[in-house]
Design goal:
homodimer, alpha/beta, Rossmann fold, 14 helices, about 40% helix, glyoxylate reductase (NADPH) activity (chains A, B), NADP (chains A, B), oxidoreductase (chains A, B)
Chain lengths: ~325, ~325
Amino acid sequence: MASSAAEEQEPTALPPLLLFRRVDAAFYAALRQRYRVLDFFASGDPLPAFLAAAAADPDPPRAAVVVGGGAVRVDAAFLDAVPSLRFVFSTGAGVDHIDLAECARRGVAVANSGRVYSTDVADHAVSLLIDVLRRVSASQRFVRRGLWPVLGDYPLGNKLGSKRVGIIGLGNIGSLIAKRLEAFGCIIYYNSRKQRDSVPYKYFPNVQDLASESDVLVVACSLNKDTRHIVNKDVLEALGKDGIIVNIGRGANVDEPELVGALKDGRIAGAGLDVFENEPKVPAELLSMDNVVMTPHIAVLTSESRSDLRDTTIGNLEAFFSGKPLLTPVLPW
Amino acid sequence: MASSAAEEQEPTALPPLLLFRRVDAAFYAALRQRYRVLDFFASGDPLPAFLAAAAADPDPPRAAVVVGGGAVRVDAAFLDAVPSLRFVFSTGAGVDHIDLAECARRGVAVANSGRVYSTDVADHAVSLLIDVLRRVSASQRFVRRGLWPVLGDYPLGNKLGSKRVGIIGLGNIGSLIAKRLEAFGCIIYYNSRKQRDSVPYKYFPNVQDLASESDVLVVACSLNKDTRHIVNKDVLEALGKDGIIVNIGRGANVDEPELVGALKDGRIAGAGLDVFENEPKVPAELLSMDNVVMTPHIAVLTSESRSDLRDTTIGNLEAFFSGKPLLTPVLPW
């Protein structure tokens, strides 16, 4: 039988973990079973005060779990505030909110969600594309408003097969999108930092050239200084008036005001967007457009991927704390 | 130089063609270039009067083009009214509006649209399924109503990969749906009149058994007396509360009141429907359901398939009139 002292001691014996993400009950329980969770959002403290308190802990934290998407930025100031930190896990695939150079300089390992979300994001990209081409959402509004019996046949959409789809970024997600669209008879082109020898698709070193040759552009790259506004006015111009943009990357991969202008003027034909530059704000002009399909950054939101994320997070933390190789390293240690 | 008499005579020299379908200008021009078009919808006459006038023509029609879906039924009465008829072309894939036994008995050949629509319908089925699972349309309404900044993250959807998809009817369309869903990592089961040796998917001779083992049922069969209400109360029960129905076949393949009841009570999880029992009427209860995706029978409506249909129609008519084999025969002659 455990003594009362041992019972009180047990929680503090767990290694501390900084948590910068809201997680569901099962995920939270899995973390608290293994770690002394220092929960930023539950604390209600401003970030500097929260970090200072963590750093002053007798057993200061060596690991942090950070939400993807940039609500909390792991930059030099963050790392300075908790010098004990040696591992940062991002619960997103993108790590644009983590200063990797600063982490490398200080010997802080970084891991991300790996391929947990890749298939869901690829599936969502395909769904957005078919929806725009085939007017699924728009025709559904027609049904829900009771217009079908009044107006009769809905206007024609466009076939997916034989469309030339230019994918920007042929990583995990881009490759899965390509695989899916091949099954629909699409012709796949791509742009990425370098040509990949292992794929049969035509490579375009330049995004504007890719856009000129494509009916559809799918943005599937990560966000960094080279890919910010990779879809700009010139690329939209090259895509042309029958062209469609699908964005499941980051909002800032596309110059949003230019996109809105091109849609308004009919300089491109339509768009399927899961991400926006100033989420959760969506440009008001888009809300009335029938040729735009918009979802609230849900490409990763499935219960299956959420449970996979929990496993991947715990797996990486356990690897870090036991000195084993990380499962999904971005910066190994 | 042609004489005035020859000019007047020329149109009547074209073979007469009964037309029971609204067609676009290009299609109409292609028909009128080759045939003396007797246009039912343009005539404004009731069907019996229209048929009687056609039969009384000095050069009575031997061929008819009939819209798919049953607006005009080619039954014994129709065939009796125009005994000169020897060929009926249906502009749909389904021929449930044509009495094939009566046609066979009278030596009337029948052709349909063949595979013109197959890929578009398969694409649409996939789109409906992803939409229901991933809440694409529902989350879009959330965005368009301005709720994203107010309510934050949208509830989780479900992953497509690893779902067991039971396809009812593994013809052209069903096979194309299977091929597409395999690329998403789905497990394909099917029911059809007989097992197909050439496919690797698990066969269920009984639809209720198929439903018991499936997460999703996709209705992709034609409509006939055996498939009317093939999805009935027992099948919905077997599919169960996490199950999803997708229907791109015919509305009457599903017992619609039972489907509505199962959706209302949460006895199944959702539905993606392009067809309804009493089109263009849609059950009012469905209009407020967020877990139902409804499109107005648009699965075949692309400009590409419309132009393919024109070619297939003309091709079959030319084959008939020149005594060559039909391109896409249902009942050869």
